Amino acid sequence: MGFKCGIVGLPNVGKSTLFNALTQTAAAAAENFPFCTIEPNTGMVPVPDIRLDRCAEVAGSAQIIPTQLTFVDIAGLVRGASKGEGLGNQFLSHIREVDAIIHLQRCFEDTDVTHVEGKVDPLADAETIETELMLADLESLEKRMPAMEKRIRSNDDDAKVTLALMERAMAALREGNAARTVVVTEDEQEAFDSLHLLTTKPILYVCNVDEDSAANGNELSALVEQKAAVEGVPCVVISAAIEAEISQLDSQEERDEFLAEIGLSETGLSRVIKCGYDLLGLITYFTAGPKEARAWTITEGTKAPQAAGVIHTDFEKGFIRAETISYEDYDTLGGEAGAKEAGRARLEGKDYVVRDGDVMLFRFNN
Question: Judging by beta carbons within 10 Å of its beta carbon (0-12, 13-18, 19+), is residue 81 exposed, middle or buried?
Answer without folding.
Answer: buried
